[in-house]
Amino acid sequence: MPGTDDTDRTKQLAITLVDAYVRKDRDLLDSTLADIGDDTDATVSELKVFGSFLSRRVQETGVVWKPADSREAVASTVADMLPPEVEFAVITVWEAYSVGEEEAAERFTNGDPAIYLHMLAAFSAAIGLAVYKPAELISTLRIATGGEE
């Protein structure tokens, strides 16, 4: 099937990006971003799927997770992982995005799609850790995307 290798690669890169935030591993974060390069749209799309999947999972388990919790969690997840100006942009965009202000969020990115990569990967890591242990989260994402455990 054409494109399957690209799709699998994109899914793996998205999982690795979440894993970098879970582990607080800046080197892994940097190398994964380099592997993604300018082709961020597909990875952003995968990360949106992860965020939705993990949000549903949190709801199913009964863990209380409010918008304020997600803002705090994203801020703490990106803390010390990014240059200060990028960290600030990610937090600001997430605050707008998490309350449904997508138009404002888009303006705050200044056209930088990497902000969405960081924001969605940090959110997936944070919300995933609300219901899973670190290794279990990454394994669950691999299984959910049809990858190997």
From TrEMBL:
<protein>
    <recommendedName>
        <fullName>DUF2267 domain-containing protein</fullName>
    </recommendedName>
</protein>
